[in-house]
Design goal:
Layout (H helix, E strand, L loop, with lengths): L13 H16 L6 E5 L4 H12 L3 E6 L4 H8 L3 E4 L3 H7 L3 E4 L8 H9 L3 E3 H10 L2 E6 L4 H15 L4 E3 L11 E2 L6 E5 L14 E4 L13 H14 L4 E4 L3 H7 L5 E5 L6 E9 L2 E8 L2 E8 L4 H16 L4 H9 L9 E6 L2 E6 L4 H11 L6 E6 L4 H6 L1 H6 L6 E4 L15 H10 L4 E3 L3 H11 L4 E6 L4 H14 L4 H6 L7 E7 L11 E7 L3 H14 L3 E4 L5 E3 L4 E7 L8 E4 L2 E5 L4 H10 L2 E2 L11 H7 L2 E2 L2 E2 L4 E7 L5 E5 L12 H4 L1 E8 L1 E2 L2 H18 L18 H7 L6 E2 L2 E3 L7 E3 L5 H19 L8 E3 L2
Helix pairs in contact: 1-6, 4-5, 7-10, 7-11, 8-9, 10-11, 16-17, 17-19
Length: about 775
């Protein structure tokens, strides 16, 4: 079929490489039913995005990585079988049709070697992505700096302008559920392409944007001329227009004479010319001119000249492709950026903490220049060099890129798998920075860095953490440290979360429960991602705030005094995703049970019909082991995903989870994130008829008025509803709370009930049942609050 194109790097093998690409493109256009793709290094940003695209194609995805991270968990949520550790046995058992790996993967990797022994085709990530681009209206974004942000901005704008847009971005876009998605028809497919390992020449896009060239990736390229040669080949292979930055002299030299090249930038000779008229810490404003005419005014939430340059590339592309500029400006204004690109982690009490991926002197200088618009009292920087080769080659540039910074902490080099180079280390770089007149110190560990930053910070400071390694973990920890000491809590917590997360103080809980009673929660939070949920949990743990997770509020009775602490509601659509593969359903905790049952029906899967009538979400059903019509939730669960109160995510088989009637003790202390459920293949007609039967039984036996479902658990002696009926308690009232005339185990709110009314009626029923039947009723509804 196809093979590892890494063996065919020379120009003499161009024909062979082209045949491989064509065969792979044809295979991906109509992948065989049941085919499996195995991902080596599935947690890497490039491979994980490709994993999402493979799932979009309907392929089965397996894989491995040394450690599960957020990218791995996201793939697992969608049904991918990703394991920790590169196990040759797991690869062999997956029986993959092909194995995808990155150029950074060591050739002695045991799983890679097993694939070679089995004769499974091995393909680099870029080769597979390039084959997908061949099948679409591919738009490639290239350049040494800024390509992740630019790709994301262009894809975001196209999504706002045209729903049928595919994309593959090498970073976490805060406004999206995932960083990659195929278009469903003939829309654009916007792809970030990497030049670091010689795979840029794999791509043959319809159009391209080239942002800049620089002396970078010195572990691969001999010099800047070699870099330019790579981009020249890429331009030759671009079938249509190539947009390039006229402010980069090397790009002008490379592309100005090409007939299909279009320039943009501040340069007066640029075909799309930028004029900046607003630049501060709140964002950026600029005009774009074309052929002597002003074609649009643009306002960004991002700040800095580099973001303006990237945005002008996006606007030029969209104008050239016929989009109306007012709509383009509106779409670009709503873009909130990419994680780790000038990402504000904390901004409260006039102290701000930023996390930035910058690991090249040019990137660091651009970000510092942009942040100076914040008019900070002091600028403090923590930097983790990335790769020994880069640090050695650009040592003098790194030493001079922190000019104007008040203090710099430098930790040791993040190797990214490289062998150490003698005399190239963080301590020597810190000394070189200090020689340039900047206060700089070497810090040996991340934990010491946390201590020193916390001791140094003062009101009015801006703190920036730079680096492509694990320094981001410390950036988040320092942000939490500062938030814990800030007042009030609502503003401090909001400052830690992404823009799409919601935080409200004194939120009436009657708005969020089916009973429509109860007082206010101190804080009500709807996180926009698992990352934001982790931040909420860590914030609550550090501040020692009580935390309660609320689903759709169908089984809650909140007391009139409200809830102290934080209420978390997983209402964001990111927590309500559903993927169906064969007879397995991969569902998020926020998914409505009605939706889950209906989608199972549409897929011809039986066994989940009973869920349709339970008025709640999957997370609540798992926590309560909810049931109806003789079935319980865990009857159809294979595995669950949950997060503990310290922000660690776990997966556990249903056979390892203790459950009982209306209870799952594990999820009383932990928070369900989702589950894998199973159904049985059946016909849609049979499942539909069974759901109609259940629905008819429910409508005839349950009230339609506001309620929390069944109030009491059924005791062994007799169903609770029958006990209430036999004691003549139907219609019994306390204030606006009334025992339903339809079903004795339901208490309904006639519109003006309070939680006190509900609790009074519950207590009255308990006392009567105990006095006259000697049975102690236990509430099924969760009673919370003060």
């Amino acid at each position: 079929m196809f093979f590892d194109s890494a063996e065919f790097e020379t120009d003499g093998c161009t024909g062979v490489k082209q045949r491989v690409q064509e065969e792979l493109s044809d295979w991906l256009a109509e992948p065989p039913a049941g085919a499996t793709v195995y991902l080596l290094g599935a947690g890497g940003c490039g491979v994980s995005t490709l994993g999402h695209l493979m799932l979009d194609l309907g392929l089965t995805v397996s894989g491995s990585d040394l450690k599960a991270n957020a990218a791995v968990r996201q793939l697992q949520t969608r049904g991918a079988d990703i394991r920790e550790g590169h196990s040759p046995e797991h690869l062999a058992a997956s029986r993959p049709s092909l194995v995808i790996y990155t150029s950074a993967m060591r050739r002695d990797n045991p799983a890679l070697r097993r694939a070679e022994q089995l004769g499974v085709p091995l393909l680099r990530r870029a080769v597979v992505l390039a084959a997908l681009v061949r099948n679409c209206r591919g738009v490639c974004v290239a350049g040494m700096h800024g390509k992740t942000s630019t790709t994301a901005m262009l894809a975001h704008a196209l999504r706002e302008l045209d729903a049928d847009t595919g994309y593959a971005v090498g970073g976490e876009v805060q406004q999206w559920a995932r960083a990659a998605q195929l278009s469903t028809g003939k829309g654009f497919f916007v792809v970030e392409v990497d030049e670091s390992d010689g795979t840029l020449r794999e791509f043959h896009p319809d159009q391209a944007i080239v942002l800049n060239v620089d002396e970078e990736h010195v572990d691969y390229f001999a010099n800047l001329d070699a870099v330019c040669s790579e981009f020249n080949v890429f331009a030759d292979q671009t079938r249509g227009t190539i947009f390039y930055c006229a402010d980069d002299p090397r790009l002008v030299e490379l592309f100005a004479e090409r007939p299909c090249a279009i320039s943009y930038g501040n340069n007066p000779s640029a075909q799309y010319r930028v004029e900046t008229f607003g630049l501060d810490g709140a964002g950026s404003c600029f005009e774009l001119w074309y052929d002597g005419d002003r074609i649009g005014d643009f306002q960004l939430t991002l700040f800095g000249e580099q973001h303006i340059s990237n945005a002008s590339a996006v606007a030029a592309f969209l104008h050239h492709n016929g989009f109306e500029m007012k709509a383009v400006a509106d779409a670009m204004a709503s873009f909130c950026g990419v994680s780790r690109r000038q990402q504000l982690l904390f901004g409260h009490g006039n102290v701000q903490v930023f996390d930035d991926y910058g690991h090249h002197p040019r990137e660091i200088e651009a970000t510092l220049s942009a942040l100076r618009g914040l008019r900070a009292r002091r600028m403090l920087v923590a930097f983790q060099p990335h790769r020994y080769t880069r640090t050695q080659y650009l040592f003098n540039e790194f030493a001079g890129c922190f000019t104007g910074v008040d203090q710099v902490w430098i930790i040791d080099i993040y190797s990214a798998g490289e062998q150490a180079i003698p005399e190239v280390n963080g301590a020597r770089l810190a000394s070189a920075v200090a020689e340039q007149g900047t206060l700089a110190v070497f810090v040996p560990t991340l934990s010491r860095l946390r201590e020193q930053v916390r001791m140094a910070v003062q009101p009015g400071d801006v703190i920036v953490f730079f680096g492509a390694g694990d320094i981001t973990q410390m950036a988040h920890q320092v942000a939490i440290d500062l938030a814990v000491g800030s007042e009030p809590a609502a503003e401090a917590l909001l400052s830690l979360l992404s823009p799409n997360s919601l935080v409200r103080a004194d939120e009436p809980m009657a708005k969020h429960t089916t009973l429509r009673v109860g007082g206010a929660a101190d804080l009500f939070v709807e996180p926009a991602s698992e990352t934001d949920l982790i931040m909420v949990l860590k914030f609550c743990a550090a501040r020692e705030l009580p935390l309660l997770v609320l689903g759709r509020g169908s089984n809650f009775l909140v007391r009139d005094g409200g809830i102290r602490g934080v209420v978390v509601n997983l209402a964001n659509e990111i927590f309500a995703q559903l993927e169906i593969h064969g007879d397995r359903l991969f569902a998020g905790a926020g998914l409505r049970l009605k939706t889950l049952a209906n989608e199972a029906r549409e897929a011809g899967l039986a066994g989940l019909e009973f869920l349709e009538g339970i008025p709640g979400s999957l997370g609540g059903a798992l926590r309560m082991n909810a049931g109806a019509m003789g079935s319980m939730t865990f009857d159809v669960v294979d595995t669950i995903r949950f997060i503990d109160r310290w922000g660690e995510i776990h997966t556990r088989s249903a056979t390892e989870v203790e459950t009982s009637y209306r209870s799952c003790p594990l999820l009383k202390e932990n928070i369900a994130l989702g589950a894998v459920l199973h159904g049985k293949h059946s016909s849609r007609k049979i499942v539909t008829e069974r759901m109609r039967e259940f629905s008819a039984r429910r409508i005839s036996s349950q009230p339609g008025a506001r309620s929390a479902g069944c109030i009491f658990k059924n005791p062994e002696e007799c169903p609770a509803g029958r006990l209430v009926d036999e004691l003549g308690l139907k219609g019994k009232r306390v204030g606006g709370a009334v025992v339903s005339a339809t079903h004795g185990n339901f208490i309904v709110n006639e519109g003006n009930a309070t939680a006190t009314d509900m609790l009074g009626l519950i207590q009255l029923i308990k006392e009567r049942v105990w006095a006259e039947r000697g049975i102690k009723l236990q509430t099924e509804v969760q009673i919370v609050g003060e």
